[in-house]
Structures are given as structure tokens and as C-alpha cells.
Write a structure and sequence with these properties.
4 strands, 43% helix, 2 domains, 4-stranded antiparallel sheet, 182 residues, Arc Repressor Mutant, subunit A, 7 helices, single chain, alpha+beta
């Protein structure tokens, strides 16, 4: 154990755990797993916003179609954020973020249980504010549905508190920067 740790044994283990998790999920580790051909293929996919045909990638990279298909599938699953969906707010729904304070190590269980609901579109563990462990995005039609949802969440095992906030106007949205790794 490091001598400079003033937080006791628990603090030491928390710090080591966070450090090891950082190593496991570091973008540098993910980046180093990309070959030059993977980077070229990602660039083609990004530049075309995913609309480039597999046979076109095969031709441009002088690579067999079967190899392109296999690599493309892996790259799309592991490195790209893709989606095509309706905007529920255009159909009268309200986008609500639930900020949930959990206890008893139940954060993952609560998040997974909430994701089973049709009105929940996103759940993520968070760090930063010490009273917010889970952020959940949900779409509701009216206050009655929101109130029922809040009561349901408050009654869940491991929920200490829940607050909510509503998106009333999106100012803008950008894709994550691609220049960091390619």
C-alpha cells in the first residue's frame, strides 16, 4: 500500500480499482487495437456517414469482400455510434432525465430493470455529483405518467432518492469528434 494514502484501506482499494478500470477502458488501449486497415476503413465509413457500400470499400482498400464484411461488422459494433430513430418530442412526448441516488450497490440492477421499460431509452452510471449514481432518459406524455414513474422508481430497492429534469429545447447536437483517433 502507498504510504501517501490518508484515506485508509478503503480509500486505497477504491483508488486502485478506479485506476485499473481506467486502464481497461482507456481510449489508448482501444486505439492500439486498430490496424492501419481498420483506421482506413473507419475513415471511409465516417466520411460517407455509413452509406458506402461494402464492395466500394473492398475496391478502395484492395481487400476481399468477405474480409471487409467481417471487419466492417466488428468496427460498427465496437467503435461506431449509429442510430436512426424518430424524435418522440415531435409526437408530443416530453424527454425527462431521471437523476437517481442509489445505495447498497444496486445501481446496475436498477439501471437494467428500468431499461426493460418501454418508456426508458437510456441508462448510465455516472460519476461527479456524489448524489447522482444513475442517469436515465425517459419519454412521457404527461405529468400523470411522470408522477407514476417517479413513484415507481422511488419504491425500487436500492433507490435513495430521485430528481428529474426536462429538456425543453435542444440548442444543438454534434457528433463526437473523429479527429482524436483517425
Amino acid at each position: 500500500m502507498r504510504k501517501d494514502m490518508n484515506k485508509g484501506i478503503f480509500g486505497y482499494f477504491v483508488q486502485e480499482y478506479l485506476f485499473l478500470r481506467h486502464l481497461d477502458r482507456s481510449p489508448c488501449v482501444m486505439y492500439s487495437q486498430l490496424s492501419d486497415m481498420d483506421r482506413k476503413m473507419l475513415r471511409l465509413l465516417l466520411d460517407s456517414e455509413g452509406s458506402i457500400a461494402t464492395h466500394e470499400i473492398s475496391k478502395q482498400l484492395d481487400m476481399p469482400i468477405s474480409t471487409v464484411q467481417r471487419r466492417r461488422k466488428r468496427l460498427e459494433e465496437e467503435y461506431l455510434i449509429r442510430h436512426y430513430s424518430l424524435d418522440p418530442m415531435k409526437f408530443g412526448y416530453r424527454r425527462i432525465d431521471l437523476l437517481i441516488y442509489t445505495e447498497g450497490g444496486e445501481t446496475m440492477t436498477i439501471g437494467k430493470e428500468l431499461l426493460e421499460r418501454e418508456d426508458v431509452t437510456y441508462a448510465a452510471r455516472t460519476i461527479g455529483e456524489h448524489t447522482i449514481d444513475l442517469r436515465v432518459e425517459v419519454f412521457v406524455k404527461d405529468n400523470a405518467i411522470l408522477l407514476d414513474l417517479l413513484e415507481t422508481v422511488k419504491a425500487m430497492k436500492g433507490v435513495r432518492d430521485v430528481i428529474w429534469t426536462e429538456v425543453v429545447e435542444t440548442i444543438g447536437r454534434k457528433n463526437p469528434p473523429n479527429h482524436f483517433v483517425l
